[in-house]
Amino acid sequence: MTITTGSLLTELRRALGEKVRVHESETLLYRYDAIATGPAPLAVVLPETAADVALTMRLCVAHGCPVVPRGAASGLSGGSVPVGPCVTIASNRMRGVVIDAPNLRAVVQPGVVTDDLDALARAEGLTYAPDPASSRQSTLGGNVAENAGGPRCLKRGVTADAVLGLQVVLADGSIVELNRNDGGLDLAALFIGSEGTLGFVTEITVRLTPPPAFTRTVQAFFSSLDDAGRAVALITARGLTPAKLEVMDEVSLWAVDQFLHLGFPEGGKALLLSDCDGDDRATVDAEAQAVLKAFQDAGATACSLAADAAEAALLWRARKNVSPALGNVRPNRVNEDIVVPRSKLPAVMREIHALAASSPFPVAVFGHAGDGNLHPNILFDRAHDDVALVEALAHEIARIAVRAGGVLSGEHGIGLTKRGFMIEVTPPATLAAYRRLKDALDPNGLLNPGKLLPERSR
Amino acid sequence: MLLAARRGGPYSVGVNSASTQKRVSIITAEELLAGSDICVQCGVCLSVCPTYALTGLEVQSPRGRVMLYRAAMEGLTSDDAPVLQAAYDCLDCRACQTVCPSGVKPGELALEARVGLQGGRAHQPVIKAMLFVFEHPWMLDAANWFVRAYQGLGLQAWMRRGKVLEKFGRFGRQLAGIEALVPSRRVHAALRRTVAVETPALGESRGRVAFFLGCVMNAVLSDASAATLKVLTRNGFTVVTPHDTTCCGAPHIEEGELEGYRRVARRNVALFAGLDVDAIVTDCAACGAELKKYGKALANEPVYAERAQAFSGKVYGLSEFLRHHGLRDLPSELGAERAGVTYQDACHLCHGQGVCDQPRDLLRVNPLLEYRELEQASDCCGSAGVYNVTHPEASQAILDKKVERVRKTGATILAAENPGCLLQLEAGMRQHGLEVEVAHTSILLERAYLAADAARAGGELS
User: Fold this and answer.
1) Backbone φ and ψ of A270, nearest 5°
2) Which has the closest alpha carbon to A159: A196, A126, A128?
3) Best mutation site among A137, A138, A258, A335 for testing chain B: the one with the most B CBs within 10 Å?
4) Model-level ipTM above the cut of 0.95
């Protein structure tokens, strides 16, 4: 069906006025996210209410026009990038928050920034647990669309674990309330991680939790990535549950050292950084000691336990600055996002390391080792390097993960960048079930086309 | 249809790079392309941008503006007007530059765009008139005389009490907005007319410095600069204040007037080059930021390059300088009642020069003050050069939020180290009926020194 663009834009502007942006100097700026770029949308709508969204949805569908949702566009899988003519619905003016402290929850509009929600929660003595690295700018709507994680999710769960309910605008313009605890079907679960392909989320009810009273930070250097992998497997095997457990490999460490001059020990080829937290000081201390012992048993060459919050912050500085540091090594990178069973971590790290050693590109591996979620980053310079080789290496790394029983995306989503892999790794019957659901909710295929689900083969 | 990973990654088909270099100089196009190429569109800058916070529009964010300059240079859009507008909608507060993990400079790119898209010259008569005034020190002295007459004759009080200007429709209200920026407390005589060229150090000498007297400081805040001189001399520095100091060039570059900017830069470099001084100190943050860039701005000028480099290397903000050398003879305790003070970072001091801790340190050791941190102190106050004149609604919205946060501290004094900020903040306090004294840290320091003198004279101090 062709889009009747002229009348669509006229009707949108008549209904929503200044909330509709059509000049190319603006629409051009909604064609990218933090990893990919596409064509500019025909128009950008900035709704303020669910009614605005529903109206936009009805008009777009009536005119055969695809709809692409967008938050802060900090995504790393192209989720908010248009693939063709479309209308982008941007949530940036939907920033309402209601904190319901006595009931340990908050109701937020999708454009609320993650850190802003956490700050408001903390003012009431609570916290919003999921902490994606992009939390300074990413929105709750985006977090729900991609089922975002973060270092804290090891112990506290991902976005899906924090969502108590959703309000969603469906393709037919209806606004549905989905309460995950009302005894009905858990339809909200379908939308979490659906990357805007099943509906547009207009309200999110989230769980807030009291922050832990005590935190201890433990750091260890290892002489091989392998040893670090074994340490992680050991921690899981011993039943320890640190709140965060992050890994950085030799390339990441070198990049950060160049960038910040923190003075890492000689021969440190891998770093593990862990937070243990809880409400009982003795228990937290004991857990930290146990984590330290696991590090030592796995062959750590240097260990430290932070004495106070200031020291802990210093230890975390390295991990928090990996991204900008890598930008200094090569101007471009592919940021992968794989998950493997923790017991397979040592083997996977060994394989990626070997693959990287035989490739022309530096590969930095860092990430949330505690739940097996790694970010191999292939560093390159598009001015000099053959991009096809980079892509091939990316595919190979993804296959290593899948062969080890892992999955394609820990937290960044499939988006448009990993769609191709879905066919490789998803059993046909599963894919068919996904498509039946998609057809039921989006019969015209207008909700964020080109994302998540692979094209149907004809 | 182009489907490309940004900057031509694995998903790339290639970026359309039709050149628009006929419209702008090669230098501007290169600067804008190179400056935007390092942007990875991560969006961290969105978290600190005042205009994005107000509007939620990508085109009002640092990332959006940088990507728009880039799109224009790549030929993806041929309409320059919205691009120039975007460059002017930027406050150039540089909060984005402080947080950008990739080192993008959206504030400086906005200035580059203003220069490049207007052919390197300011065109509007009002702007040209303003720049003319800034380039002729005697005109600023004259402005000072008029403001003092305006106040002294009771005109200001009458105008404000009767809301006279507001009665003249939209234009009148605009004028009222500008008038609101004139301080209500008494403006002192222009320092440039009264200051000695050389003011000797008091007590043991620690060195010689030049003082760069800024235009607006001279015109309406001479009491603050006079206090700066006193504080410097008390600290053992002989201060040389050349009377022919010209505008630092910030207004010029902010209006895209590149030639004028270079002209005043050369003049200042030549004037200060012959002085035998260890440092060039300024109490105006905006001036300091520009003066520190002269080296880079004149790098390609055969006659001036080396001197400009030397010049920039000697520039210090007042608190930066004092903190570096240590305050002398200021007792840490005077037994006096301490007034609650809070501090607003000048964007071009904190984000522009990285001088954020030093002003706070000086307030903390002041025996007449009790320091309280202002929430979001390094968020722009909305003054931003002449932004409060060109974008009155946005500026007011930003100022209103700032005043609320000042109110929350309960402080009775608000300190800042830039004239634009001081005027804007004073207007804000007045508008909201907040009894808060807005003062330069130099005034607060001199006040403490005078109190120490009195205590010493009264035998209260050893």
Assistant:
1) -160, 155
2) A128
3) A137
4) no
